[in-house]
Each structure stands twice: as C-alpha cells, then as structure tokens.
C-alpha cells in the first residue's frame, strides 16, 4: 500500500480478515507510531499513540481513539497532549486499582532521548472520547523512557517498567548506554524511586509478565539487534535477574507480551536480527541530526539501527518465555525502515506492536503501519485456540 492508499482506508471500520477482523485507525496526522491498547473501566477498548510530522519534532503529540460500544468502528482521534517545545512519545495508559485512568508519556527535545522527561495525566471518558488534564512531570530522572504496562506488586506498590538513556555530557544519544529499570511508587504515583535491572546494557522496553505465585518474567527489546532477551523475578517484581537471550531474533524494535491460557506467554515482535540483514542507518533520528555536532559514544554497547521491521509475528511459548516455537505471521511487508518519513512511500515497517487478551479468548493487536497509521487486528478465539494447540509443553 502507498501512503495515499493507507490514508483512504483510515476509517476506523473493522473489516473481516483471515482469523478475525482489522481496521486502520483514523488520525489527522501524517505520522502515527507507538500504539498502546487498554481496556477501560466499563469494557471499552482504547488505543493511544503519538502523531505529527516526524518523530522527534515538537509537533509530535499523543492521540487516542476509543472503539464504539458495538465493536464495529474506532472513533475519531483526540489530541491529548501538546507541548510546543518537545516531542511527546510512547504513551501508556494505566488503570489504577481504584479504577482511575492515568496517561504516562515521554517528552524530549528533538532526537535527544537522554533529555526525555516522563509526564502523567488523568484521563476521563466523556461521550465516547478520552480527555486528559494538563498533567505534571513525574520527577523521574532525565533520560527516562517508558513503553510497557505498569503492574501492581502484592504490597500495593505501583511499578512502571523503564529504560534509562543514562545521559553522558557532550555525547550525542545513540542508545549506547541504555539500560533497564523499574520505577516504584508507594504513594499512588506521587513520587517514584528507580530500581535498576543489573547487567542490562542495551535491554530496553522491559515488558513484565506475571506467571503466578510471585514469579514473573520480563522480555526486552535489544539495542544490539541480536535476540529478544528475558529475565526473571521470584519476589513479585522487587528484583530481577540479568537479561539473557531467548530463541527469538530482535531487530532493535519494540516487543510486547502477555500471559494467556494459564501458562502460555504470547509475544508480538519482528523476529529478525542484524545477523540476518545488511540494512543499516546511522541512528533513529537521522533526519533531525544535521545541527547536532556532538560526537557519538565510543563506549557502551553497540546499537544497530535499520534492520527491517517486518514481518509482524505472534510468537507463543510454553516454557515461560525461554523459547517460542509457535510463530504466526500477523502481516508481511518488506519492513524497510531506513527513513522515518511517512509520505515518500519508502518506509514499510510493521512495528511497535501491543497485545491485549480479550474476554472471549481472542487477542487484540495494534501496531504501526508504514509510519503512516495505526493498524488494529482482532484475532478471534478460534484462531488463538488453534495456535495454542500447537504449543509443546503447554499444560492442558
């Protein structure tokens, strides 16, 4: 599809596809990226993302749409943030134990992720659309980024998965010093303390999954574009082992995971690595870096940018996320991502997926379609059941 083809199909209407239904969400912006799905109190499905002209520019803001009560079409996109000096990215909706809705997002100047701040806003649902208040800075350190759903520990503490860009004075951010961490709040988000994941160079987009009885795993995107990595917690998320590789390749692009059917871990990602591709670009923000004369890092890990962001696959594990033998292709494309431009037709990525379990046993997936739009795919319960039947080691 060309950018023009996608624009014509951004109606929000769910249409039948093999294994379920799909829609392209409406949006007023030419670039739309980093989708996040949330089930709101009352059962409505919401999707938020960031949109504007180009990632890193100050016209990038957070948008959201809500699926109608009949589950047939997505509503018009509503603009939730508007910081004129920063690029507002990576939205996350958290429904608190009390039923309140909070929107977290990052905000950075240009491509300087090491200067990002994390903001929080209260959300309300009014006549089928989400509305946000002015919000406030969370107080987390500069260079903090988010992507995954918060979780609540058994002592009631709120836990927000992070990655830290770990600023280096005089050095341009490239991802070389990024590490994983968890922010913990014991006062319902008023203040946060940061607990680092040890030995996690290049491990970002930490996605925790509760496995029961206080056991958790976390899956990670990798700056080194080698494999999805995994760590464990056996104390309810208070401490984590060092990340180690799974059998799923990673392209230095986002992943997301949930637990389904009791003991199966489902992950959406692009299962391709730097070892499988010669495609490279200098950094994520090539189009913005003309005026940044700071040198790149000569230490830290070695981030790889430009590996294709496709296909988009659903991967299933029956051994707690160590291996993922069942892999279902949600969508195919060339995956070209050597530019972030949304209008010249060169970007073909299917990226930044998010996954949500449905009450009927199906799955909702949302992801970036060629940097031009957000695609929503609904996999029906029959399709998911057929995939689960193929998972070795699964307890029936």
Automatic annotation (TrEMBL):
Key words of the record: Hydrolase
UniProt superkingdom: Bacteria
Region (Disordered): 230-250
Composition skew (Polar residues), residue ranges: 241-250
A family per Pfam: BNR_2
CDD domains attached to this UniProt entry: Sialidase_non-viral
Domain Sialidase stretches: 43-365
InterPro entries attached to this UniProt entry: Sialidase, Sialidase_sf
Gene3D superfamilies, sorted: 2.120.10.10
Any one GO molecular function term: hydrolase activity
This protein's name: Glycosyl hydrolase
Naturally occurring in which organism (per UniProt): Martelella endophytica
């Amino acid at each position: 599809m060309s950018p023009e083809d996608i624009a014509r199909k951004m109606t929000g209407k769910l249409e039948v596809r093999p294994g379920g239904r799909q829609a392209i969400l409406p949006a007023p912006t030419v670039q739309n990226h980093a989708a996040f799905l949330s089930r709101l109190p009352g059962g409505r499905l919401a999707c938020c993302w960031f949109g504007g002209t180009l990632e890193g520019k100050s016209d990038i803001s957070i948008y959201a749409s809500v699926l109608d009560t009949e589950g047939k079409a997505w509503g018009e996109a509503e603009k939730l943030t508007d910081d004129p000096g920063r690029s507002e990215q990576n939205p996350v909706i958290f429904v608190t134990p009390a039923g309140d809705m909070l929107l977290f997002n990052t905000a950075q100047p240009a491509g300087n992720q090491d200067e990002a701040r994390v903001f929080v806003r209260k959300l309300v649902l009014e006549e089928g659309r989400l509305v946000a208040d002015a919000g406030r800075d969370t107080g987390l350190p500069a260079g903090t980024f988010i992507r995954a759903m918060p979780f609540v520990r058994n002592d009631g503490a709120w836990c927000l998965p992070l990655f830290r860009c770990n600023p280096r004075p005089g050095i341009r951010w490239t991802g070389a010093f990024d590490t994983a961490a968890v922010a913990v709040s014991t006062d319902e988000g008023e203040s946060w303390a940061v607990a680092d994941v040890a030995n996690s160079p290049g491990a970002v987009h930490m996605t925790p999954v509760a496995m029961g009885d206080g056991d958790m795993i976390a899956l990670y995107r990798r700056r080194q574009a080698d494999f999805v990595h995994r760590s464990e917690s056996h104390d309810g998320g208070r401490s984590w082992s060092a990340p180690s590789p799974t059998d799923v390749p990673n392209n230095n692009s986002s992943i997301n995971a949930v637990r389904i059917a009791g003991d199966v871990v489902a992950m959406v990602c692009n299962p391709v690595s730097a070892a499988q591709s010669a495609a490279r670009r200098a950094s994520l923000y090539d189009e913005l870096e003309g005026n940044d004369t700071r040198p790149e890092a000569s230490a830290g890990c070695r981030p790889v940018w430009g590996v294709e962001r496709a296909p988009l696959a659903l991967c299933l594990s029956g051994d707690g996320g160590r291996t993922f033998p069942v892999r279902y292709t949600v969508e195919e494309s060339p995956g070209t991502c050597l530019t972030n431009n949304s209008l010249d037709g060169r970007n073909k990525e299917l990226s930044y997926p998010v996954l949500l379990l449905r009450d009927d046993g199906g799955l909702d997936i949302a992801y970036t379609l060629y940097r031009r739009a957000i695609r929503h795919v609904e996999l029906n319960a029959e399709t998911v059941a057929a995939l689960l039947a193929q998972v070795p080691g699964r307890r029936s």
